[in-house]
Specification:
By secondary structure, this protein is an alpha+beta fold. The chain has one domain: Immunoglobulin-like (Sandwich). The protein has 3 helices and 9 strands. A 5-stranded antiparallel sheet has the order 1-2-8-4-5, with no helix packed on it. Strands 6-7-3-9 form a 4-stranded antiparallel sheet, with no helix packed on it. A hairpin with a 6-residue loop joins strand 6 and strand 7. About 5% of the residues have low confidence.
């Protein structure tokens, strides 16, 4: 094949490729949506938290478990005020646990729950979770779900200084001048 024939075939090939590309673009369909063709929104997602009193420890002296479970509880209610199913986590946020005058968690016993069947436990042994308050240490108290609007749950929290946390003759020296500060936090997540 001579040079002219090769050049002619290459030009015909290029011309054919251009014609195919132009005709493909000409016959291709495009659809463009209008301004509001995607619609959506958010559903209601909210909890109501109601407490009637402050968190307190009943005595500045260590007391027995039998006495501790009889103390007045800190009572609060969580209510689902929307139509979205909610999963929640209740934490006790211990404020400034690393402060020099902070009472060690090994001295505090708690009882948390809906009724009276829960077992008192040392606060230091509760599961540590991510804190929502800067500088605090969060301890998991409980979890649950509220399925529909109006569902609610009421919890009781009792805290006291455990009389068995240290030998009686050393207890005072270990806890004198120490303070304990905490808040309840409720973290909720919508469930599909």
């Amino acid at each position: 094949m001579n040079e002219k024939t090769k050049a002619l075939l290459i030009m015909v090939g290029i011309l054919l490729a251009c014609i195919l590309a132009i005709s493909y673009a000409f016959y291709q369909l495009s659809f463009v949506g209008g301004d509001d063709n995607v619609r959506g929104g958010t559903r209601c997602f909210d909890l109501h938290f109601e407490d009637l009193n402050a968190i307190h420890m009943p005595a500045t002296l260590p007391i027995s478990e039998a006495e501790g479970i009889l103390t007045d509880p800190y009572t609060f209610t969580i209510t689902n005020i929307c139509n979205t199913k909610i999963r929640y986590e209740v934490n006790l946020e211990v404020l400034n646990p690393e402060a020099e005058n902070a009472l060690g968690l090994q001295f505090i016993r708690y009882k948390f729950g809906i009724g009276n069947d829960e077992t008192p436990t040392l606060l230091g042994s509760a599961t540590t979770v991510t804190s929502t308050i800067t500088g605090s240490q969060a301890k998991l108290m409980g979890t649950g779900e509220l399925a529909t609007e109006g569902d609610s749950v009421t919890y009781n929290l009792r805290l006291w200084m455990d009389d068995k946390a240290a030998p009686a003759n050393e207890y005072y020296e270990l806890v004198k001048g120490k303070v304990f500060n905490a808040k309840i936090s409720v973290i909720s997540t919508a469930i599909r």
